[in-house]
Amino acid sequence: MTTTVLAIGVLIAKAICIRWTKRALLMSEAYGALLEAAALLASVAWLINIYGVVSVLADRGEAVSFLPVRQVLHTDHGAIELVPAWIAPTVVALFVTSGLCLVLAVGSAVRSGKIPFISWKGSMR
Questions:
Q1: Is the peptide bond before 68 cis (omega within 30 degrees of 0)?
Q2: Which of 40, 47, 50, 67 has the fewest C-beta atoms lying within 10 Å of its C-beta?
Q3: Which residues is 65 bridged to in the sheet?
């Protein structure tokens, strides 16, 4: 529940910032923009996953996994997936893209010398 509130808060704060500043990203440096994009993508992925959880809350199926959410109902004719089919691939794609943004943000920060203990400009001894 806490992570859902946090994800909603991130998206609401972003909407307010866009409205007030007329800019999509607040950070002008590449690593800052990538960190913002990673936070937004992770928030959207989490909310889509929670939508999948809520959509099958009343069903009697067996929970297979939570992230991405999967719930299966076993019948005489086989298993029926209760969660909408688009949720799992969307959540995985958004989290993978968020992770890629984080990796690129760290690489950008290292190249620009913003991380003091790891820098291409200094010695690595």
A1: yes
A2: 67
A3: 70
